[in-house]
Amino acid sequence: MGNLIFLVFVLASFFGLSKLFAKAGIASWKAYVPIYNFYELSILLKKPWWWCLIMIVPGVNILMYGVYGLNVARAFNKPSNNDLWFASILPYFFFVKLGFDDTAKFVGLDKFKIEPSKTIKNWVDPIIFAVIAASIIRGYFIEAFTIPTSSLEKSLMVGDFLFVNKFAYGPKIPQTPLSFPFAHHTMPVINTKSYLEWIKLPYFRLPGFGKVENNDIVVFNYPDGDSVLINMQDLSYYNAVRIVAYKMEMADRERGLQTLSPNAYKQQAWEYMQNPNNTNPINNGKVGPLVGRPVDKREHYVKRCIAIAGDKLEIKDGEVYINEKLAHTPDNAQHYYYVKSTNRLFGDEVINKKNKRLVLSNLELLDKFDIYATEAEIAAVSKDTVVYKLNMPKKVADEVAKLEGVVSVTRKVDPKGERELTVFPHNTAYAWNNDNFGPLVIPKAGLTLPIDTHNLCLYEKILNTYDDGIHEVLVSGNQVLYDGKPITSYTFKQDYYFMMGDNRHNSADSRSWGMVPFDHIVGSPFFIWLSVKYEDNNPVSGESFIKSFTKNSKEGKYRWDRFLCYVDDGNLHSIKIPFLVSVFGIWAVTRWLRLRKEKKEKAKS
């Protein structure tokens, strides 16, 4: 409905434009030819002809309509504040109004009889064009991101400020173009939606520089983020329902009641979490409102693509196998390790006074090895030894093993056959966990796979949501029904990818929520311009902003070695010297040109 209303608005503007063209001596029919009409308008207004090309860009073209409206009002001798605001906000109807206004005469932008509004001329014009330019760059070329979680630690780190190349795999056309500039899905401070779904565009992607390959680090829209609890946005809504269902089952067992089927508990939990006034059993707060988000407004995640479309994936004792061959493990991959020590090497568990979290008391030693305080705890204590559970790369684990008092360092591995509640496909028929997962075939466009009541849970979300729009997929007896018709196989319409974090034991990734469709892919991180430590993770070195200016990357808050670095599959290549040389070169050339101009002006005088 919104698309139809917007089409009416556009057609109304074309009609109004035909009237304005007639007033200016231009053939009226030209107003009804999309893009060409704005080319003619640009020439009439003596503006750059390429302005008309911006009208092709979804979302930005709505802002550009206001720019044209503003200039049309001036050119037709209507420069009052009321007219300029009307023209900027509702140009579709302003064109019609102006077309039927006998007092509106075309005088051009350089022949005003009345001085235009200085506020709009000096402030609104530059701001709008800055927003338009930034929106085009952000939407189709490069967008700034911050790494909020440690799923790719130590490849891309918490506190990395980076740019993402959207042309890596082809920029997507916004599907919800009515959006507040620079706000992804939520308005800052007021915490409300930053977009309107009155207009919805179909999925379309421009050509890119390449395709997603194995081990690429990829930015994508979080597939499980189609439904979000506003009061608990850091946890998947579907995962929250599963946790609540499990709590309901455990509560019945503790009371000695007869337990229900897993699907029955899931249905109860689903209904319970639909009521915003209920108490959330996970955090004891209110459940709060549940909102749905379109694909392009879902949270941005960044992970490493472990398996591409058509691959067969399996994880055995923490090692990844692709097409039955052992895959390369990233150099900085992290795992949890059990560190057995005869002394209190990393201290006791205490409450951090600043954030009230439980941490190990020897924060200095954790900081020395860059082991996050939020990912370190005591696993077991005996009379003679203490066992710490620490999250770290293998090279750090090897260093820790050499410390005095350390008896052993053993990598944590979830045993095969031990099903984990939060691990995909969340079905008792598949006893998978983070370290023993699969085998799983990753769907590829054109690939046909058998579908039955046993393996449906692996591909159900793809069939009923991702692949070809919304469809009804049900199990009836020993049959799978697709829109009411029995199926025994399915041919996939697009490619899918399996994403994992390098932080293997502390990453919510495809092991948690399944595969990522190609239409969710956003781009690839390519440049880190700033990197800082967060105090929660590094309470010692990440504490002070000011004092850290005189400290190195290891001892201070700023990771100077990560500033101005090009990213290549998680490996960093510093470009500090070329960057500084370029900045100095631009300054020197600019200064030379200015001095040369001043010299010529003096010579003339």
Walkthrough of the structure:
The radius of gyration is 30 Å and the shape is globular. Strands 1, 2, 3, 6, 22, 23, 24, 25 and 26 form a 9-stranded antiparallel sheet that branches. Strands 9-8-7-16 form a 4-stranded antiparallel sheet, with no helix packed on it. It has helices at 2-23, 36-45, 51-54, 60-75, 81-89, 91-99, 118-140, 237-254, 262-273, 363-368, 394-401, 456-466, 510-513, 576-604; strands at 142-146, 160-165, 217-221, 227-229, 290-292, 300-307, 312-316, 319-322, 325-326, 334-341, 349-351, 358-360, 376-381, 386-393, 406-411, 437-441, 448-450, 473-476, 479-482, 485-487, 489-491, 496-500, 516-517, 521-531, 565-568, 571-574. It is α+β, with helices and mostly antiparallel strands and 605 residues long. The longest helix is centred in the C-terminal third of the chain and has 29 residues, at 576-604. The model has no long low-confidence stretch (mean pLDDT 89). Among the domains are: 2-140, no CATH class; 319-411, Alpha-Beta Plaits, CATH 3.30.70; 576-605. A hairpin with a 4-residue loop joins β13 and β14. It starts with a helix and ends with a helix.
